[in-house]
Design goal:
By secondary structure, the protein is of the alpha+beta class. It has one domain (about 5-295): Clavaminate synthase-like (Double-stranded beta-helix), CATH 3.60.130.10. The protein contains 9 helices and 15 strands. The protein has helices spanning about 25-40, 50-60, 100-105, 145-150, 155-160, 170-175, 180-185, 220-235, 290-295; strands at about 5, 15, 40-45, 85, 120-130, 140-145, 165, 190-195, 195-200, 205, 210-215, 240-245, 250-255, 260, 275-280. The strands form 4 sheets. A 7-stranded mixed sheet has the order 1-2-3-13-5-15-4, with helices on one face. Strand 1 (about 5) and strand 2 (about 15) form a beta hairpin. The protein starts with a strand and ends in a 9-residue tail after the last helix.
């Protein structure tokens, strides 16, 4: 099969067609799909025909798939632990009403990078639309490679070698979850380089976004001001675009070359239901694991 690639921005994002990703693929096609991700950072596939099985199977061409925590006494909801629910539905399929969960999910409307709060970084995310709202609910993407490349040299010199502390609970605090600084401090976090080398393309990229809380060795206020400055730089119009979803669409993004955020929709009355697989960076573990259960064991608070 020959991929047809239509760029969205000159250096970032593409719509890909000419291949049926719901069926088994030969090695040449698999390699071309991975190469397209290395080149464009975000690839959009329309009307894919994927179901749960083929979504998971297609995702495996990118590497080891993260596994969702098991619910005690229950089988995986969709027959695969590799499928994470995304959207505004509860396990029964009804629109979420729990205030704590709604507040937690609003953090996804901040610019973020999936699982940067884990020591085990996520490389690719593959999000498949099952139900979409009539209005809104798009996803925005930002090009962190081009944003780094275009930085003035004095800023590149300033941030060279810096490391950042990433925390899920910091981004939730920014989104309105009533957590104190002390409560965020006591919960898990991860340390990563502020600038990382993207292996597939050989380009450098900023690795920041909403989970990025503090810069190691820097005064807290100064470090957060620098993170905000870089975030503002990387989300200028020339680096961003949005995807308007239809059921059956799959979007793949490289978390080590991009940031993303969800768009607003009427979450109390409109259904938005997506399923995501997430690929871990690097060598797969010897045994399948679940690093998320302990992280997510803290209760969510709706009000102070």
């Amino acid at each position: 099969m020959t991929l047809t690639i239509k760029p969205i921005l000159p250096r970032f994002g593409a719509e890909v067609s000419g291949v049926d990703i719901s069926k088994p693929l030969d090695e040449a096609t698999r390699a071309a799909i991975v190469a397209a991700m290395d080149r464009w950072g975000v690839c959009v596939y329309r009307n894919t025909g994927l179901d749960n099985d083929s979504h998971v199977e297609f995702s495996r061409i990118f590497g080891y798939l993260e596994r969702a925590p098991l619910r005690p006494g229950k089988a995986p909801r969709h027959g695969h632990r590799e499928l994470f629910d995304a959207g505004n539905l509860d396990p029964s399929g009804a629109i979420l009403q729990d205030e704590g969960m709604l507040l937690h999910k609003r953090g996804d409307r901040l610019w973020h990078t999936d699982s940067s709060f884990m020591e085990l970084r996520s490389s690719y995310s593959l999000l498949l639309a099952h139900e979409v709202p009539k209005e809104g609910g798009e996803t925005w993407f930002a090009d962190t490679r081009s944003a780094y490349e275009d930085l003035p040299q004095p800023m590149k010199d300033r941030i060279a070698g810096l490391e950042v502390i990433h925390s899920l609970w910091w981004s939730r605090k920014l989104a309105g979850v009533p957590l104190t600084e002390e409560e965020v401090d006591e919960r898990s976090s991860a340390r990563h380089p502020l600038v990382l080398r993207h292996i597939g393309s050989g380009r450098d990229a900023l690795y920041i976004a909403a989970h990025a809380r503090d810069i190691v060795g820097m005064d807290r206020d100064e470090g957060r001001a620098l993170i905000r400055e870089l975030l503002d730089w990387a989300t200028q119009p020339q680096y961003i675009f949005s995807v308007k979803w239809q059921p059956g669409d799959l979007v793949i993004w490289d978390n080590l070359a991009s940031m993303h955020r969800g768009g607003y929709f009427d979450e109390r009355n409109e259904r938005r239901y997506m399923r995501r697989t997430t690929v871990r960076e690097g060598v797969p573990p010897e045994q399948p694991d679940d690093p998320f259960a302990e992280l997510l064991s803290f209760p969510l608070k709706a009000t102070a």
